[in-house]
Each structure stands twice: as structure tokens, then as C-alpha cells.
Amino acid sequence: MKYTYTSRNMTVSQHLKDITEKKLERLSKFFTPETDVFVTFKGEKRTQTVEVTIPTKRASIRCEATAEEAYTALDLVMDKLDRQIVKYRKKLISKAKQDHTLRQDYFTPEIEEEPESEITISRMKKIQVEPMDAQEAGLQMELSGHDFFAYQDGETGQICIIYRRNQEGTYGVLTIQD
């Protein structure tokens, strides 16, 4: 696998890179040697975040974890990656889709299979989207107490969704393309 490292607000030692590659090598049984792996280290005041992204043909497998030390965050990311890969593998097997970034023996079933979890929709809601700008939509979201809010952009007329990001105090906007 080919590794690409990025760091923000911290310096990444060669030892940390070596440990990261050693831990990620256990995933090489699932991926071809040409697979790109993007690892991002982010340093904040008292925490460090490790983010691993593995782009595949149909989707990207992305996991992020935050801890006081980068090594601890790396262990948490590896646990999440294992679960994500198993979930992706089951999805591919069940739908008989094949992704050529994954090795062919990846599709042979393992002995230890976790029970498949289904998504349960407990409530459906119809909403009336109103034209407004992103600032007003953010205010409406905060007032409603939700983590996201759908609205119609007043300038472009497109349907947008503003959402609260994991970083404290930041927001994102999704724009629906026709």
C-alpha cells in the first residue's frame, strides 16, 4: 500500500510514521499493493487526531479518532477501520459487486462473521424548506437543537443542508446538485 502523510499543527516523527505503517500493514490482506492510504495527523491544544482515508472504487473508507496522544488515537482508528472494512466487505458480497482495489481473496467468507445490523428508521418527517442564507439557517438549526437543518439558498434556489461538524464551533454546508 502507498502511504501519504499530512500533518496539521504538529510535527510527525519518523517513529510515528513507522508505527502507523506497521499497524496499517495488517490491512494489506484486504487491499492491493497499489492502494493509496492517506493518513492525517492533527494537533490541537490537548488532543491529537489521526484520520485515515482509503479511497476505493465505489466509496472511501474513512476513520478518525481523537485522543491525548497520537499513538492512542492510532489504536482507536485501527479498531474503527477494522469495523468499516468488514461492513464494506459484507456490502460488496451481499450485492455481488466487485471492487478491483481489493484483493480477490477478500471476498472469501471468514469464519467469524458478525451479525448483520440493519438500519432502523424510527421516524419520517416532511418539512417545508424556506429560502434563507447559511447564517440564518445556522441560527435556525441552533434554535431547533438539531445537528443539521435543511433550507433553500435564497440566492441560488438550491436545496442545502447545514450541519454541525465534529470540531467545536464549526459548520458545514451540503448543496444538493440536480
Total beta strand runs? 8
CATH level 1 name of the largest domain? Alpha Beta
- Which runs of at least 5 residues are low in confidence (pLDDT < 50)? none
The coarse overall form would be globular
What Rg do the Cα atoms give? Answer: 20 Å
Number of contiguous helices: 3
Question: TL;DR?
Answer:
With 178 residues, the protein is of the alpha/beta class.
Describe the structure.
- With 178 residues, the chain is of the alpha/beta class.
- The chain folds into two domains: 2-107, Double Stranded RNA Binding Domain (2-Layer Sandwich); 131-175, SHC Adaptor Protein (2-Layer Sandwich), CATH 3.30.505.50.
- It has helices at residues 14-24, 70-95, 134-144, and strands at residues 2-8, 36-43, 48-55, 60-67, 131-132, 148-153, 159-164, 171-175.
- The radius of gyration is 20 Å and the shape is globular.
- 15% of the residues are buried.
- The model has no long low-confidence stretch (mean pLDDT 82).
Write the layout of secondary structure elements.
Layout: E1 2-8, H1 14-24, E2 36-43, E3 48-55, E4 60-67, H2 70-95, E5 131-132, H3 134-144, E6 148-153, E7 159-164, E8 171-175
Parallel strand pairs: 1-2, 5-6
Antiparallel strand pairs: 2-3, 3-4, 6-7, 7-8
Helix pairs in contact: 1-2
Tags for this model:
single chain; 178 residues; alpha/beta; Double Stranded RNA Binding Domain; SHC Adaptor Protein; 2 domains; four-stranded mixed beta sheet; 3 helices; 8 strands; 28% strand
